[in-house]
Amino acid sequence: MNLKSLFLALNVMVVILVLSSCEKENETKVSSYGNSESHNMGQDCMNCHKNGGDGEGWFNIAGTVYEKQFNSSYPNATVHLYTGPGGTGTLNYTIQVDAKGNFYTTESIDFGSGLYPAVEGETSTEYMITPVTNGKCNSCHGITEDKIWTQ
Length: 151
Prior knowledge:
By secondary structure, the chain is α+β, with helices and mostly antiparallel strands. It has one helix and seven strands, in the order H-E-E-E-E-E-E-E. It has a four-stranded antiparallel β-sheet, with no helix packed on it. A three-stranded mixed β-sheet has the order 4-1-7, with no helix packed on it.
């Protein structure tokens, strides 16, 4: 192997190493019905799942859904994000809630000047009356606001 070939092989190895090490931090994570890989229900997911954080993937929206009495999390619900209040306007995003009651995605969410969340359970859909401009749901819900719930 000549010096030029060795140099090229080393460059390729460095590129592969850099790409594979970045891949873990930026890996795609999206909650789905029935999946039970999530953890830390009720905590602010984005304390860890952010650029430079310890969590895998950088969440753009995340939170936990509870049943109406707030005694336990509510699995397999659906979170919708609309451009208007009360489920009006355009439905821009739909996020599945996993088996532990958590929802999250690393996919891009354009909140623009605000989106209106709706949480759909088996027998009801609960609407947030004020728009949100970020996806840190558990940074308010369960702290200064009631937990997110449905039934």
